[in-house]
């Protein structure tokens, strides 16, 4: 995807000098082979790290191969000092993982004790104040380790992306709608750059793109995407002008950053001044890997970008919006099998979900804005939404939020979209998340989360949860099945 980093994985085997280095080499090759079978490319450094000089040799190999994410592999017990020094000096995300013993017949001549070595590695990592990714159970055979490497690739993509990300925002939050407030300090703590701008800056840039010669080509691309759903073709030139405005702004202002997202104010003055709603453009850019969060939701844009890096799929930002009526529940009980009414809710936004993530879609107008701004008239300045039913399938709701006192907290909730007609407007779907009723009360409400949640169109809870911990986010609520084992009022601790 555009605007998402490429991860090049490398693996370095380590060996404590009282163990045979050949054991680590043999096991490393087996891991690389297992990864290859899964389509994971893994550069092998020839150097086996047994001492500090080996660290320098391995680092040179990795740099020459453009490796930007490192697997430190304990093929045997491993040298605690050199292996953690390797992690310290490597410029990028690092994972530590260890080899399991292969068979009972090997326990005399080929026992590696990496299970033990991981303990001492963790102690030395703490001495160096390092926080690499260590999987939940970091010891396994080559197939097990290849699964861990697959997770690490997604985690590394997030970490690399955030380290080179700039957020562009346009406009302040409205007085009546301050929920998605955005303290800046936590963004800097994450290594994310932010450039806040006035709506006037955006309006000027938009006007400067009038009659841009590229507009007809963008309009044609929009027409090809919308096909029979092109309900308001007359608005497409303005939308194309706006899309070019945002892309040019990013290229001209991203500076030292490589990746970018937007958090833009989209009402109430936007419609009267720009003459349209920007939802369809937001959906198109999200499809390219460039989230554009509605309503100046800076942490919403950040959450969408994290999802995009994790999944390499477009994300969307939705209101955790309305309850499912009892009659809809009763009329579709076979489709809601296994869920209670309070497990269900509708995720909605005006029209920002990419068309590729919708079951059906069409260009429409924003009903609420139409009622407010041009009642009893044909839609004009309220045109520009992409509406329809969001496609069914697995999802993960996710948000990383900076609180009013500049702390970071996050939630991760896996579930699915049910193939039920929402019978409403906007981009909308019926969502099902186990124990959503309790999650809603004891996480979303109790911890003061705003109404927007980022949506990943697959289950990515493990990866997102692990990434939050690597970023130093201590307060992460995860509706993992294990969390249901708690018997107190709030199982989501």
From TrEMBL:
Q: Name one GO cellular component term.
A: cytoplasm
Q: Which UniProt keywords apply?
A: Carbohydrate metabolism, Isomerase
The record, for InterPro entries, names: Fuc_isomerase_C (IPR015888), Fucose_isomerase_N/cen_sf (IPR009015)
What are the transmembrane regions?
Answer: none
Record's keyword annotation contains Isomerase: yes
A UniProt-annotated Pfam family: Fucose_iso_C
Identify this protein by name. Answer: L-fucose isomerase-like protein
Show where the L-fucose isomerase C-terminal domain sits.
348-474
| Taxonomic lineage from the root | Bacteria, Bacillati, Bacillota, Clostridia, Eubacteriales
In the record, what terms sit under GO molecular function?
L-fucose isomerase activity
GO BP annotations, alphabetical order: fucose metabolic process
Q: Which organism is it from?
A: Ruminiclostridium papyrosolvens DSM 2782
């Amino acid at each position: 995807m555009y605007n998402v980093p490429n991860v090049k994985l490398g693996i370095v085997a380590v060996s404590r000098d009282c163990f045979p280095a050949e054991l680590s080499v043999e096991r490393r090759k087996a891991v690389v082979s297992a990864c290859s079978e899964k389509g994971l490319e893994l550069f092998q450094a020839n150097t086996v790290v047994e001492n500090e000089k080996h660290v320098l040799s391995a680092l040179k190999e990795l740099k020459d191969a453009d490796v930007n994410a490192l697997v430190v592999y304990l093929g045997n017990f491993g040298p605690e000092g050199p292996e953690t020094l390797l992690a310290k000096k490597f410029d990028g995300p690092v994972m530590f993982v260890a080899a399991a013993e292969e068979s009972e017949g090997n326990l005399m001549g080929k026992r590696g004790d990496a299970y033990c070595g991981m303990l001492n590695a963790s102690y030395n990592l703490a001495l160096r104040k390092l926080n690499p990714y260590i999987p939940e159970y970091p010891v396994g055979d080559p197939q097990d380790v290849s699964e861990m490497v697959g997770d690490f690739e997604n985690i590394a993509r997030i970490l690399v992306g955030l380290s080179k990300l700039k957020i562009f925002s346009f406009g302040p939050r409205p007085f009546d709608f301050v929920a998605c407030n955005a303290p800046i300090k936590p963004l800097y703590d994450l290594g994310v750059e932010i450039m806040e701008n006035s709506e006037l800056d955006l309006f000027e840039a938009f006007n400067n793109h009038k009659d841009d010669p590229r507009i007809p080509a963008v309009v044609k691309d929009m027409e090809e995407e919308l096909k029979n759903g092109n309900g308001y073709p007359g608005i497409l030139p303005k939308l194309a002008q706006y899309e070019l405005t945002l892309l040019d702004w990013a290229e001209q202002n991203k500076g030292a950053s490589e990746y970018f997202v937007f958090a833009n104010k989209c009402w109430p003055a936007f419609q009267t001044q720009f003459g349209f709603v920007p939802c369809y453009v937001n959906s198109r850019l999200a499809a390219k890997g460039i989230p554009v969060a509605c309503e100046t939701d800076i942490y919403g844009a950040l959450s969408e970008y994290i999802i995009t890096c994790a999944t390499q799929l477009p994300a969307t930002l939705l209101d955790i919006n309305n309850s499912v009526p009892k009659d809809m529940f009763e009329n579709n009980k076979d489709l809601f099998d296994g869920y209670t009414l309070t497990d269900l809710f509708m995720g909605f936004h005006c029209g920002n979900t990419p068309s590729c993530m919708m079951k059906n879609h069409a260009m429409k107008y924003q009903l609420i804005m139409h009622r407010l701004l041009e009642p009893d008239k044909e839609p004009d300045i309220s045109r520009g939404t992409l509406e329809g039913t969001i496609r069914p399938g697995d999802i993960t709701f996710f948000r990383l939020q900076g609180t009013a006192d500049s702390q970071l907290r996050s939630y991760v909730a896996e579930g699915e979209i049910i193939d039920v007609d929402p019978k409403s407007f906007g981009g909308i779907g019926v969502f099902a998340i186990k124990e959503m009723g309790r999650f809603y009360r004891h996480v979303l409400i109790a911890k003061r989360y705003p109404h927007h949640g980022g949506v990943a169109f697959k289950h990515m809870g493990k990866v997102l949860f692990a990434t939050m911990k690597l970023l130093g986010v201590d307060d992460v609520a995860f509706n993992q099945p294990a969390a249901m084992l708690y018997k107190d009022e709030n199982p989501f601790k």
